[in-house]
Amino acid sequence: QVQLVESGGGLVQAGGSLRLSCAVSGRAVSYFRMGWFRQAPGKEREFVAAIAWGDTTYYTDSVKGRFTISRENAKNTVYLQMNSVKPEDTAIYSCAADRQYYTVSVSERPESYDYWGQGTQVTVSS
């Protein structure tokens, strides 16, 4: 059974940093496409970042240059480093995993991912 558990959320001031973690069990993160999504109150779920097999990465325009997605295979964990955060980054952040092996293309579509975590709240104060 595949499980994804996010951690690292919290309250941070604008301009600060957070690192979100997504611990994965039931499969090795090194072989699969992974993504981070977020959902703010009253808004639709939004793509944030993705990393494909081979470590190609992709970001939504609003976080480019500020956020970095990465993975640590030894810990079977995917990270989202968030720097220079803004109040508009406030949301519940969820990680997601694709069930297909060796997918070299990244995707911002939620339907490309089969497994989801419960999410972690990030609140940025101004």
Entry summary:
This protein has strands at 3-7, 10-13, 18-25, 32-39, 46-51, 57-59, 67-72, 77-82, 91-101, 115-116, 120-125. It is mostly beta strands and 126 residues long.
Notes on the protein architecture:
Helix content is 0%, strand content 52%. By secondary structure, it is mainly β. It is built from no helices and eleven strands. The strands form two sheets. Strands 2, 4, 5, 6, 9, 10 and 11 form a seven-stranded mixed beta sheet that branches. Strands 1-3-8-7 form a four-stranded antiparallel beta sheet, with no helix packed on it. The mean pLDDT is 95. It starts with a strand and ends with a strand.
Features:
126 residues; mainly beta; 11 strands
Helix content: under 10%
Number of strands: 11
Chain-averaged pLDDT: 95
Largest sheet, strands/sense/barrel:
7 strands, mixed
**Measured on Cα atoms, how large is the radius of gyration?**
13 Å
Structural class computed from helices and strand pairing: mainly beta
Strand proportion, as a percent range, falls in over 45%
| Alpha carbon gap, first and last residue | 40 Å
Instruction: Tally the helices.
Output: 0
Which word captures the global form?
globular
- Point out poorly predicted stretches: none
